[in-house]
Design a protein that fits this description.
The protein is built from 8 helices and 4 strands; from the N terminus they run ααααααβαβββα. The chain has 186 residues and is α+β, with helices and mostly antiparallel strands. The chain folds into 2 domains: 107 residues, N-terminal domain of the delta subunit of the F1F0-ATP synthase (Peroxidase, domain 1, Orthogonal Bundle), CATH 1.10.520.20; 73 residues, Glutaredoxin. A 4-stranded mixed beta sheet has the order 2-1-3-4. The radius of gyration is 20 Å and the shape is globular. The relative contact order is 0.11.
Length: 186
């Protein structure tokens, strides 16, 4: 792992441990999970928020004020709001995406859940997602939360990642295998 990535993940892990422990002590894990969802949604939708998090042109007080206002406007819990302001004052907002990922992993572990990253050629219906979650639960022996994304280049099928296991049933992958087989023959 490169040093900057290692540094970021280390910083994120320390903040995640502190935030998770505080939320767990206050029996506020559900509120923490909804705060994570809200922040991930806001970061996905707002280029301005992503710029605020990553740009060095904003001063510490400006970042802290902006994050405080954002937390209030979004109705985030006190733990998350104060953490965002602290991170801004310490110039650590750049690790926010890793922090959210680490918190999500800790909450899933606490609930006994496993997250499966599922990529499909078209959006899965609720019934398909539920059936896939049940099938994966039977296979891995734990509740499975589906993190679904769409990638039309797959043509059809699914790519499923659960932990270190990857299952690729996509048509694009099968076509690639066929192409490699044809090269070996000819």
């Amino acid at each position: 792992m490169s040093e900057p990535a290692s540094l970021s993940s280390g910083i994120a892990a320390r903040y995640a441990t502190a935030v998770f422990d505080l939320a767990k002590d206050d029996a506020a894990l559900d509120a923490l999970e909804s705060d994570i969802d809200a922040l991930e949604g806001a970061m996905a939708e707002s280029q301005d928020l992503r710029d605020l998090i990553h740009s060095p042109i904003y001063s510490r007080p400006d970042q802290a004020a902006a994050m405080g206002a954002l937390a209030t406007k979004m109705g985030l819990s006190g733990i998350v709001g104060n953490t965002l302001k602290l991170m801004a004052s310490k110039r650590r907002l750049f690790v926010l995406p890793q922090l959210l990922r680490a918190l999500r992993e800790r909450i899933a572990e606490e609930k006994g859940e496993v997250t499966a990253d599922v990529t499909s050629a078209k959006a899965l219906s609720k019934a398909q997602t539920d059936k896939l979650a049940k099938t994966l639960k039977d296979r891995v022996g734990a509740d499975v939360k589906i993190n679904a994304t769409v990638d039309e280049s797959l043509i059809g099928g699914l790519v499923i990642k659960v932990g270190s296991t990857m299952i690729d049933t996509s048509i694009a992958s099968k076509l690639g295998q066929l192409q490699n087989s044809m090269k070996e023959v000819g």
